[in-house]
Structure formats: C-alpha cells, structure tokens
Amino acid sequence: MTVDWRIRFGVLALIWGFSFLFIKVGTEGFAPFQVTFGRLLFGTAVLAVAMLLKRERLPRGRRTWLHLTVAAFLLNALPFSLFSYAELTIPSTLAGICNATTPLWGMVLSLVALSEDRPTRVRAAGLGIGFIGVLTVLGVWQGFSGLDVTGTMLALLASFSYAVGWIYVRRTLTGTGASNLSLAGSQVGLATLQLAVVTPLFTSLPSSIEIVPLLAVIALGVLGTGYAMLLQYGVVSEVGPTTAAMVTYFIPVIATAAGVALLDEQLSWNTPVGAVIVLAGAALTQTRPRSGRSVVRAAATPPKPAVPEPAATASRP
C-alpha cells in the first residue's frame, strides 16, 4: 500500500529541516569535512541499495560522467562542506534560513544562464523583497552586531552553489537517457570520492568518537542525503515538481523550531521576521505567467523533475 503523498511530503520537510540540527551536532565531534564525508558515504550506501533493488544501470558516456562530476561538486561536496563549516560559528536556525535563499539566487542566475526565462514585475518584486528579508535576518541596521559574518556568508554561499548547480544540471544532464535515481546515485557517489580525497588532507582522525555526533552524521547521510532523495522522487512523480518544490518553504520553519527546542538556540525578533520576508520573496520569484514556459522551478538538495529531466525542485540542506 502506497503512503499518501502528503504524508511523504511532511516527512521530507521534517528530514531536511532537521538536517541542520544534525550538522550542528555532528560538528561537535567531527571536523566539518568529516561530517560531509560521512553524510555522503551513508547517503551513497542508501542510493546504491535502491539502485540494486530496482536494477538501475549506471549512466553511460564520458561526457555524462564529466558533467556529473561537476554537479557532484556544486550540489553536494561544496555546499555540504560550506554548511558544516558555517555551523561551527552560526546557529542551525540561521543556516536553515540561509538555505531558503536558493530560489532567489536561482532567479538571478536564470536571467543570465537561461535566456528563455523572462523576468516579470512580480518576480522582480519577489527578488527585491527576498533580499530585504536577508538583510533583516542579518540585522544590517545594527552593523551585523553579534553576528558571525564569515559563518553567515559561508551558508549563503552554499545556497548560491545549489542555484548554480541546478542550472548547470538542467543545461547539461537533461536527456541523457539515464533515470533520476541512476543520476543521483552516481552524483552522490562521485561527491563521496571527492571528499575521500580532500578530507585526509585537511583533517586528522578524532582521538575519540562520541556516539551522539556519530549518530547525527549517520542520520544526516541515511535520512537527509539518501532516503530524502528517494522520497522526493516519489512525490515529484505523483504530484509534479511545482507542488513538490513547496517543501522549500517548510524547511527553515522546521530548522528554526528544532534549533530552538532541542539546541536551546536563541532568536532575536529580526530572525523569524526576516525569514518570513525571505520566504515570501522566494515564493514570488517562482510565479510564472499563465502562458509562460516554466524553466526554473525552485532551485536546489535534493532540490527534481520527472524523467527524462534531472530531478531538481527543492532546496535541500
């Protein structure tokens, strides 16, 4: 019996919302690169099992694998690492809110990279509103007082990387003939290899392994990087990418609630207010004229349209 898509949608939002908490807890026992490597390794294991059970073949062609290598860096290795480093100095709540800016970056980039994606007054207004929300979250009138600027910039850069990555995927991996699961599994596997090379160069083995950070990394990989992607494939296939993309707007809400309730993170008034403004602006940037062609739907993580296009509809952490 198939579980109703609304339940799966809710589970997906919970998993990706809690991923920022998992990152925060993971970095309490491991270096950021180790957290990223762990989540990719466990995520790859889940996707590999799914591919074996469904008897999926690996993508073919040197060009496809080259594009997947770039996508793995832009959509997995780089943003995952940036979020891990960011959460060394900023709350998980702020990281979750920064993640919600991906659709804003996606719109800016789409105007350059996708010439058929024409701006409208509503979408332009949404872009402006969204960045006003970002400035509100950052407390710009206070001169960023009490805010770790470096950590916040790393989180915003991670969201920007998602936007760049999904535009790249749409332009290079559409119509390869491979299934979404095959492309995703291969991409995450390549990102794991990338971190396997980088991690030993910049980190050393921890002197001891604490159980709670280890469980957080395992959950981050198995649930947030593996199982969540499988969930999203099902939701996209059943209700379409536009509806599935709405999960983007629940992620910061859940991330904020989890950080405040479970990590005792503090919120000033401008953080939730700014988050609401960001989400409102992001939603407006995704509107389309009735006769227009939808080219970029909320950009990003396991941010995905149905076959034959590479899956990409929502901003994942």
Described by its quaternary structure, the protein is single chain
How are helices and strands ordered from N to C? HHHHHHHHHHHH
Number of helices: 12
Radius of gyration: 18 Å
* Total strands: 0
Provide the structure class: mainly alpha
Could you name the ranges where pLDDT drops below 50 across 5 or more consecutive residues? Answer: 291-313
Distance between the termini: 30 Å
Biggest β-sheet description = none
Mean pLDDT: 86
Shape: globular
Strand content: under 5%
Question: Helicity range of the residues?
Answer: 55-70%
Short description:
This protein is an all-alpha fold and 317 residues long. It has helices at 5-26, 32-53, 62-86, 92-99, 102-113, 121-138, 149-172, 180-202, 211-239, 241-244, 251-263, 270-285.
Give a verbal description of the structure:
The protein has helices at 5-26, 32-53, 62-86, 92-99, 102-113, 121-138, 149-172, 180-202, 211-239, 241-244, 251-263, 270-285. By secondary structure, the chain is mainly alpha-helical. Helix 1 crosses helix 4, helix 4 (92-99) packs antiparallel against helix 11 (251-263) and helix 5 crosses helix 7. Mean pLDDT is 86; it is low at 291-313.
Features:
about 325 residues, mainly alpha, about 0% strand, globular
SSE topology sketch:
Blueprint: H1 5-26, H2 32-53, H3 62-86, H4 92-99, H5 102-113, H6 121-138, H7 149-172, H8 180-202, H9 211-239, H10 241-244, H11 251-263, H12 270-285
Helix pairs in contact: 1-4, 1-9, 1-11, 2-3, 2-8, 2-9, 3-7, 3-8, 4-7, 4-11, 5-7, 5-12, 6-12
